[in-house]
Design a protein that fits this description.
Elements: E1 8-14, H1 18-29, E2 37-43, H2 50-60, E3 65-68, H3 76-85, E4 91-94, E5 100-101, H4 106-116, E6 120-131, E7 137-140, H5 148-151, E8 163-165, H6 166-176, H7 188-198, E9 200-213, H8 224-245, H9 251-268, H10 272-285, H11 294-311
Helix pairs in contact: 1-2, 7-8, 8-9, 9-10, 9-11, 10-11
Length: about 300
């Protein structure tokens, strides 16, 4: 049994991940390191056997696996925070209960890098996207950057690849207070944006983790209105950070990105009326968007696609 504080705590939140959780846990326990590692499981009153699986591992590996739970479901944000609060390591690695690590030396390599670079607040790596419904695998991310200005428009950081300094994460919670932003539908992107302002993020161009894409998850929902709402939330996060930590030069680019993503989705889904309503709303909020080609171009595409479907 390990009694001294570990160098790394692995923060793994889980809710109804019974089909996938064992793979995630085993990928952490199989890490080969020269230092102590603990796995902190944040279980949020699942209904599918996830809780029983967590208790099984906590009993089998006392000192290496700790379980954080409660008597009621508290939601993803509160569960994320309380699981982090239970972590004792100098560094914290994240891996959700439906993802897994594919490199047994992931933590050793990242810890070596961060120990040698005190200016590095977080280290992340390339990853693999695994589409559960088809079994298809794709490299993630398609682009690789970690600077603030480009992260505002698109994150290239997979949560399951990250290792960050615990003190930096604690400072993020103290300064940003994400619990005061219920409209933010994710807690990792604002964290990465803040890290890019306050420290250096190092990217290792080698896949160490697999991100499982489920069609019913918040960020990968097949319901088009949910997809739009999630993307809108991401861009709202970017607008907030640009206002508080940027120069304002990226504001129009963010608004254009938010509008074009929504219009792209609506060019395939929903009615023409819904498309026009969204386009009108975006232009009223930022008249400059009327000069961008996406609005009329995607509308033409939608009308032509609709007529083609009617002929079929």
């Amino acid at each position: 049994m390990e009694t001294s504080p570990p160098l790394i705590s692995v923060c793994m939140t889980t809710y109804n991940h019974a089909p996938y959780l064992r793979q995630a846990i085993e990928s952490v326990l199989s890490q080969q390191t020269s230092f102590g590692v603990e796995l902190v499981l944040g279980e949020d009153c699942s209904t599918d056997g996830t809780a029983e699986l967590c208790r099984e591992y906590a009993a089998k590996y006392p000192g290496r696996v700790r379980l954080v739970t409660g008597g009621r479901n508290v939601g993803w944000r509160a569960n994320y925070r309380r699981t982090f609060d239970a972590c004792r390591g100098k560094y914290v690695a994240y891996c959700d209960g439906d993802d897994w690590w594919c490199d047994p030396l992931k933590l050793q390599k990242q810890a070596d890098l961060m120990e040698a670079d005190p200016e590095c607040g977080m280290c992340c790596t390339a990853a693999v996207d695994f589409y559960q419904s088809t079994g298809e695998r794709k490299p993630y991310p398609p682009e690789r950057y970690t600077d603030f200005d480009r992260l505002l428009l698109r994150t290239t950081i997979a949560n399951c690849t990250t290792l960050a300094r615990r003190e930096l994460i604690a400072a993020y919670y103290a300064e940003i207070r994400p619990e005061e932003h219920p409209e933010w539908l994710t807690d990792d992107w604002p964290m990465w944006l803040w890290f890019s302002v306050k420290s250096r993020i190092r990217f290792v161009d080698r896949p160490t983790a697999v991100h499982r894409r489920l069609s019913d998850s918040v960020s990968h929902s097949t319901a088009y209105r949910k997809r739009i709402a999630f993307c809108d939330s991401l861009m709202d996060i970017s607008l907030w950070f640009e206002a508080h930590y940027g120069t304002g030069a990226n504001r129009f680019r963010i608004l254009r990105r938010r509008s074009s993503v929504a219009l792209w989705v609506l060019s395939w889904e929903g009615s023409v009326r819904e498309y026009l309503a969204r386009w009108r709303r975006d232009v009223c909020g930022c008249p400059r968007l009327l000069l961008c080609p996406e609005g009329p171009g995607l509308l033409v595409k939608k009308i032509l696609f609709r007529r083609k479907k009617q002929r079929i």
